[in-house]
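Prompt: I keep going back and forth on a fold encoding question. Comparing notes only helps if you start from a blank page. Show me how you would write down a chain together with its backbone fold. Please set it down just below, with no commentary around it:
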Amino acid sequence: MKKENNYITPKGLKKLSEELFSLSNIERPELLKTIAWAAALGDRSENADYIYGKKRLREIDRRVRFLNQRINSAVEIDPVKQSTNRVQFGATILLEDHEGHEKKIIIVGVDEINTDKGHISWRSPLGSSLLGKEEGDSVEVRTPRGIISYDILEVAYSEVE
């Protein structure tokens, strides 16, 4: 099976690394202390601290494995270092739809998606259809609501907010 690259911005990689550090070095050790304390109380079958602690420990371990995989497959791309007028990973794009509504989006990695901030994945229907296009180009995007047309007004590269 082919390993897929996990494109990510420096800020996104830092966020994943900080979460991994926090889970591994702060939350997990504290939780282990709580579980040990709860286990020392005796009957574990009705001990909520013990039962919840073990459940939370499994969740943390699962998330740590996931974060390790994502970080190990990460290909860091710094938008600030891009020097092209074509849409590539990390681009900030100003779009206009056929009704004249403008929207700003930033193409980021799948671990950085935040639609409230306009951060969309390079693998999303809109993100993938924009890749390789330039200012002045039009693009049609197939969405669950139908085909939407956009004009690319501006392409810029800066640090992801």
Q: What stands out?
A: Strands lie at 6-8, 74-76, 91-97, 102-108, 119-121, 138-143, 146-157.
